[in-house]
Amino acid sequence: MHEISLQHYLVLASLLFSLGVFGVLVRRNALVVFMCVELMLNASNLTFLAFAKDAGMDAGHLPALFVIAVAAAEAAIGLAIVIAVFRSRGTVNVDDIRTMRL
């Protein structure tokens, strides 16, 4: 049987992170941009845990939990901002929302 090595995890994490960066740069919907940021945070979690597994330590779990907490806070606050902007402007397209003036 083939064992999954550190390189496999890092390639997967880099693909996920690249997909997230591509989505942030290309997509114009604020909700899709937030999902792409979450994808990039999950890719960093995968990297932390892969290095921890490779080193045989549990040290990667603490940064991963911190990233999960930051991602949850970002999702909650970001979604609240998106809902407030949608109620005032009627759109969540980031091109249409150039200024934060109401």
Secondary-structure blueprint:
Elements: H1 6-26, H2 30-55, H3 61-89
Helix pairs in contact: 1-2, 2-3
Q: Which fold name corresponds to the CATH topology?
A: Helix Hairpins
Task: Estimate the strand proportion.
Answer: under 5%
Give the class from helix and strand content and strand pairing.
Answer: mainly alpha
Give Rg in angstroms: 17 Å
CATH class: Mainly Alpha
Q: How would you describe this protein?
A:
By secondary structure, the protein is mainly α. The chain has one domain (6-89): Helix Hairpins. Helices cover 75% and strands 0% of the residues. The chain has 3 helices and no strands. The protein has helices spanning 6-26, 30-55, 61-89. It is elongated.
